[in-house]
Specification:
The complex is a heterodimer of chains A (269) and B (396). Chain A has 269 residues and is an all-alpha fold. Chain A has helices at 2-13, 15-29, 39-58, 66-91, 94-99, 106-132, 145-169, 173-187, 195-204, 216-229, 237-261, 265-268. In chain A, helix 7 (145-169) packs parallel to helix 11 (237-261). Chain B has 396 residues and is of the alpha/beta class. Chain B has a six-stranded mixed β-sheet, sandwiched between helices. In chain B, strands 10, 12, 14, 15, 17 and 18 form a six-stranded mixed β-sheet that branches. Chain B has a three-stranded antiparallel β-sheet with strand order 2-1-4. The longest helix of chain B has 18 residues, at 233-250. Chain B is elongated, with a radius of gyration of 28 Å. The chains are: A mainly alpha (269), B alpha/beta (396).
């Protein structure tokens, strides 16, 4: 517990560095593009247009209402971008890692925070879209939103810490990660309603249904959608709680792994 | 000095694994589990123990690859020791390669703040110091340009300015003075002197022996990752230079002969006192040689020669043992060669010795170009080659 406090303190001391690195991440992402930072607003607009157009064309009747679908995709984007960007968090900063001393965790942390800012911008577009389409936003539940976002950020940080440190030692991580994220996307209720996998699992046996919520994104998406589009999941709150707990456990596990590997970064790079 | 110890290492060791090529992949890791891995290991540092007190300046010298930079990286915390411990108190500013850690896409100004934040300084503090940094680095016009457009000199100036102005307790400096123009080097040295006066601690790595000897209180001499010596700067620099001389000479060294008699030991030094290999102008030199003959050998001769550092012969002579009462070699014995002073230009020379017989074509034992020495020139005068008294005058 003491070392956790120390870690947090060491990060707090370098908050200026975190701020600068977050800025740098955002700047580099949109470097040379005309719209620059507005892409973080424009991308979700494109998502909304593309998905709503093509899903209408391809499928008879949408699997999900468009507002539910877009909400899911924007939430998924946050996780997926964090994972991909974190590949370069250490490996792309060889100069800093080899030549300067600071808590290395700052690197994946700033990757995640940059993506969080991006996600919040997308969230604004999403809210506008939801308002325009008169989605059933649960205003009374909005105060819950920060808790959900914080939990997803924790999940992303745990993931980013694990991915960024693993990639230092195994360059296969990059290739593997794409497939893992894709599989994870299809295992999560992003493009289909939550009821579908739960129904499938129920055929296997009632005991297996809560296991679906071991996927932290299952519970997170359920709660996001509950708040933003008013779809209350037909499951006990404790199952959703399981997802939230797993998200925080992944943060713990990712950070522990990162801290274990971190002393040897300099040898490998 | 009895200030507190601020840097302390105990049994510090660092091992690297040399990899054949590229980085590790899942495949090689899996294969590595199946059969014990055969990565070649390399100890960059072995069992290094030393301490530095507050206010001290410690110089670190050694040949390339002797572990100097690894040591600084361990102190800076960018590498983790394989064994042993390292403790540094206070804020460290490290100049491991000047301007490293700068991001090429960011401007000079942004990099200054980046560096400050790495050091844990607040934006407000950095803003206060910013003017001084820019002024010291002489980069006012270029400070808002990305540093990728900087010349290496500008890079170095900004790097040094930032590292000094963040006001660290301990400064680690690696080969900084090798770059930059003379005027800026002077400025850096002045700033370092001022830094020392304020009771700050410095560790300096350099190949410039004159500078490091002048600014260090103590010097640590590393060789192949181990401490060869620690102490008085003058003494350590001498030791290092002798070591370098020796290793350069090793390339030209040749040893041959029938080995019926062997030269077991050669000691070079002044007429009196401890052995050394650097001699002042005209200083008498005494060379003591021990030999051993496996059987009685008549009519021995002793050969001596001097070559310059490239191996070109300058002097060669043979003396019959009979001339100083040594008619034959039998068992062990010792002889001494006295040189009243060598009339040669300042520089590095190689001495050769051979033990032979007037009756035999092949020497018993020859040590060609095996013993390096360094000669200093006459004070206040210089010449090339061999000293010849010259006297010029006007006439007519």
């Amino acid at each position: 517990m003491k070392s956790v406090q120390e870690l947090i303190r060491s990060l707090w001391i370098r908050r200026e560095l975190v701020a600068i690195l977050v800025q740098r991440n955002l700047k580099i992402r949109y470097k040379g593009s005309v719209l620059g930072f507005f892409w973080s607003l424009a991308s979700p607009v494109f998502f909304i247009v593309i998905y709503s157009t093509f899903l209408k064309l391809v499928t008879k009747g949408m699997p999900l209402p468009i507002s539910t679908l877009v909400t899911g995709i924007i939430i998924w984007q946050f996780l997926s971008l964090c994972a991909h960007d974190s590949l370069a968090a250490i490996v792309g900063n060889v100069n800093l890692v080899k030549k300067t001393a600071f808590p290395r965790l700052i690197l994946p942390l700033s990757t995640v925070l940059a993506n969080l800012i991006n996600f919040l911008m997308s969230g604004l577009v999403l809210l506008v879209f939801l308002a325009v389409t008169r989605a059933n936003v649960q205003l009374s539940l909005l105060p819950l939103l920060p808790v959900v976002i914080l939990t997803q950020t924790a999940l992303c940080l745990g993931l980013a810490a694990a991915v960024s440190s693993a990639h230092v030692f195994f360059r296969d991580t990059e290739h593997l990660l794409g497939h893992v994220i894709l599989a994870w996307l299809f295992l999560s209720p992003v493009l289909y309603p939550l009821e579908r996998p739960l129904g499938l699992l129920a055929k296997l046996g009632a005991w297996s249904v809560p296991l679906y919520f071991l996927n932290p994104m299952a519970g997170l998406l359920a709660v996001y959608r509950m708040i933003l589009v008013g779809e209350y999941p037909a499951v006990p709150p404790s199952w959703v709680g399981l997802s939230f707990a797993v998200a925080w456990l992944i943060l713990g596990g990712g950070v522990v792994l990162f801290q274990k590997l971190q002393p040897w970064f300099g040898d490998e790079l | 000095m009895t200030t507190p110890v601020v840097i302390e290492t105990k049994g510090l060791s660092k091992r690297f694994f040399l990899q054949q090529s590229g980085s590790r992949t899942l495949k090689s890791a899996v294969l590595g589990l199946l059969r014990p891995h055969r990565r070649r290991e390399f100890w960059a540092l072995r069992d290094v123990t030393f301490s530095v007190r507050r206010g001290e300046t410690l110089g670190i010298i050694g040949a390339n690859g002797s572990g100097k930079s690894t040591l600084l990286s361990l102190l800076a915390g960018t590498l983790t020791p394989t064994r042993g411990t390292v403790r540094v108190e206070g804020r460290i500013s490290s100049l491991l390669e000047l301007g490293a850690g700068f991001h090429p896409e960011l401007t000079g100004r942004e990099n200054v703040f980046l560096w400050g934040s790495i050091m844990g300084l607040s934006r407000a503090t950095m803003r206060e110091r910013f003017e001084r940094i820019v002024e010291f680095a002489e980069l006012r016009e270029y400070i808002d340009q990305p540093v990728k457009f900087y010349s290496s000199g500008m890079y170095v100036r900004l790097g040094f300015a930032v590292a000094v102005e963040v006001d660290p307790d301990v400064m680690l400096v690696d080969e900084v003075l090798a770059v930059g123009d003379l005027a800026f080097q002077k400025k850096c040295l002045d700033r370092m002197a001022e830094f020392r006066k304020r009771d700050k601690t410095m560790l300096i790595v350099s190949h410039d022996m004159r500078t490091i000897q002048a600014i260090s209180h103590r010097i640590l001499f590393l060789d192949a990752g181990q401490v060869r010596g620690e102490g008085d700067p003058g003494e350590m620099v001498d030791r290092y230079e002798h070591h370098m001389l020796q290793s350069r000479a090793d390339a030209l060294r040749r040893e041959w002969g029938t080995r019926e008699a062997v030269i077991e030991r050669v000691e070079i030094g002044p007429a009196e006192g401890p052995l050394r290999s650097t001699f002042r102008w005209n200083e008498p030199i005494a060379i003591r040689m021990a030999y051993r003959a496996s059987q009685p050998l008549p009519r021995p001769c002793f050969a001596f020669s001097i070559s310059d550092s490239t191996g070109r012969l300058i002097h060669s002579s043979q003396t019959a043992g009979a001339s100083f009462g040594l008619d034959r070699l039998e068992g062990e014995g010792r002889v001494c060669l006295r040189l009243p002073g060598l009339p040669l230009a300042a520089g590095d020379y190689l001495l050769s010795f051979a033990l032979l017989s007037a009756d035999r074509p092949v020497p018993f034992h020859a040590l060609d170009r095996a013993f390096p020495i360094r000669l200093e020139g006459p004070p206040g005068a210089s010449f090339e080659g061999v000293f010849v008294p010259t006297c010029w005058e006007r006439y007519g």
